[in-house]
Amino acid sequence: MMSSPKELRPDGLRSWLEKLGLEHLEPEVIAWCTEQGAVFLEELAEHAADLAEHLELSESACARLVGGAQGALAAVLPNSGGGQKPELSSLRTVSTAPGGKATTVAGLGKRSASICPALTIEAAYKDGLPRTQSAFPCWKDPVSGEDAINRTATVQVEGLLCGVFSNLQIKDRSLSVREVPRKDAHIKEKELTEDKDEIEELERGGSRPSLFHTDTLGNFNGFSNRALLKEKIEAGVSSTSLDHGQTGTVYALEAGDDKIAVFKPVDGEKFSRKSLDAGSGAVREEAVYLVDRMCGSKAGVPVSSRATIKVGEDVMEGSVQAFMMEVQGFIEDYAMPRDLERAHAFVAQENAEALALLDMRVFNMDRHPGNLLLLKEEKPHTLGPIDHGCCLPPWWSLSEAIFDAWISWPQLRTQPSEQAIQLLKTAKEKLKDTCKMLKDAGLEESAVITLRLCTSLVYIGVVELGRTISDIAALMLRDEDKEPQELSWLEERVMSAAKMAGAPCSLQATARGDPEMVVEEPNSLKVDVFLESLESAFRTDLKV
Predict the structure, then answer these.
(1) Can you give the residue ranges of the PI3K/PI4K catalytic domain (predicted)?
(2) Is 442 inside a domain boundary?
């Protein structure tokens, strides 16, 4: 006998219904969510007409729900992308596949045609420049006439998040896809094409464009390397992309002159991380978004999902990520003040904590200053974390954590805020559901165990024992100054617990002589015993 699906109650549902004056129908709406497999509030706003029909609303209530769904969504979830302007349509509006056959998704029951597990979008494909040139400053529209290249790109967003992704707003129905440098994927084109007159004005003391470097005291501190490269391009010099050969290129999905999303092809994944194969980044991009979203999107990871782009007979697989707004630049072009008060004024403590706690829970192996965006022109700035293909390694491969972007920030060396404590309590409360969702998205069990043990470490250290976030982060890092390196504090305890849980481990030396943990039979691990042993070790060894 099959058990009935677990009741689904999207975060923010009560508040959303209150905005619409329909809170008395909450039980019926929850029943509809459970039947349809609607996990996120965006899905309700997107399919408000179907929900209204199911609820058999009066004409006035139906108009209130359908007409106000996106506005209420924006009020409850300001970063959702919904309700920006009444005249804007969504990606779902231009989809060539507004419905589909009922499909079992995420073990949450049957989804009807109204909430389909794939979003297919037609877009014009614009041939970009050779990869040795910067695409933005030199971009020209394809020529007309006989020499014009008219091709269509089919973008299909797949997986659990297509409903959330399809809520992204567009200005018109004319969509295009073109190749751009990965480093500039989340930067508006106009920020990269300022002319020399503006630069000369800056040198005379004029207003400063957002991408130029400022020091921690707010004084002008010269041009960033990116600006210097831009000036060379404007002078007619063909410059090689700084990222080519490292992280490859990506594709921007655009509506008119505005970017909507960034597609990262699998063949552009050029990272090299232990136990992570190139090509496995797409599912991890989606997984990290889910981890953040299940805790209220406090770290600000843009909605990410797996996707494919087909141009002619060529098919590219990868992930698609919503374009981030109000980008001022990368954190590498700025510096966090060392003084705590000034640091708080630059980036609020709760924002810094949310980022660090996310990176620690997903064991980020690539959080450097070049993949952390600084958002908002006014202070305090907020943060935009991107590029999460190097997260969630197998539980036996925890030697390469990289927290360089934030490990020295003063906001993380002080008593954690109440917001940080509540975030971790939410993470623990929703861990079981989050893990199930990650498995349904395609993440392997060994990586899900990593999320569980890292969440346990951070929760016990910060919430139960009152340690600072910086203290706990340091326990996850190896000392890079030692040659050969030694196991991190966390690795030592993972290795000991694995032996007690039926998965004996040994150490082997890498080519440079560093120790590497090896498990001959990972599947022999008794997961519950392993995690219980780790929790006991964390509580004992973290006491000061």
Answers:
(1) 332-397
(2) yes
Same domain as 344, residue 285: no
Q: What does the angle CA 169 – CA 74 – CA 84 come to, to the nearest 5 degrees?
A: 40
CB atoms within 10 A of CB 335: 15
How do residues 363-379 score in pLDDT, each as one tens digit? 999 999 988 999 999 99
Same domain, residue pair 357 and 283: no
CB atoms within 10 A of CB 207: 7
The token duo for 289 is 């978004």
| CA dist., res. 444 & res. 55, Å (int) | 39
Find all residues with CB under 8 Å of 171, minimum gap 6, and list them.
88, 255, 256, 258
Taking CA atoms, 267 is separated from 154, 280, 281, 308, 354, in Å, by 18, 10, 10, 12, 31
Q: What's the total number of domains in the chain?
A: 3
Calpha distance 500→522 (Å, rounded): 13
Percent of the chain with pLDDT strictly greater than 70: 76
C-beta of residue 232 within 8 angstroms of C-beta of residue 214: no
> Are 61 and 182 within one domain?
no
Q: How many angstroms separate the CA atoms of 374 and 386, rounded?
A: 11
Q: Are 319 and 304 in contact (CB under 8 A)?
A: yes
Is residue 479, in this structure, part of any structural domain at all?
A: yes
Q: What is the mean pLDDT of residues 158-187?
A: 80
- Domain with 436, as residue range(s), is 328-541
Whole-angstrom Cα distance, residue 128 to residue 151? 13
* Residue 157 lies inside a defined structural domain of this protein: yes
Domain final residue pick, 84, 108, 130: 84
Structure confidence by residue, pLDDT tens digits, 325-369: 888 889 988 889 999 999 999 999 999 999 999 999 999 999 999
* Backbone φ and ψ of 134, nearest 5°: -75, 125
pLDDT in tens, 45-72: 888 888 999 999 999 999 999 889 888 8
What's the predicted TM-score (pTM) here? 0.81
Which residue from 108, 105, 102 is spatially nearest to 3, judged by alpha carbons? 108
Q: Which class for 271: exposed (0-12), middle (13-18), buried (19 or more C-beta within 10 A)? A: middle
Residues 506, 372, single domain; the answer is yes
Exposed/middle/buried for residue 479 (C-beta within 10 Å: 0-12, 13-18, 19+): exposed
- Written as one letter, the residue type at 27 is P
Which residue pairs from 81-86 have beta carbons closer than 8 angstroms and sit at least 24 positions apart in sequence? Answer: 81/167, 81/168, 81/169, 81/303, 81/322, 82/42, 82/45, 82/167, 82/169, 84/169, 85/169
Domain membership flag for residue 97: no
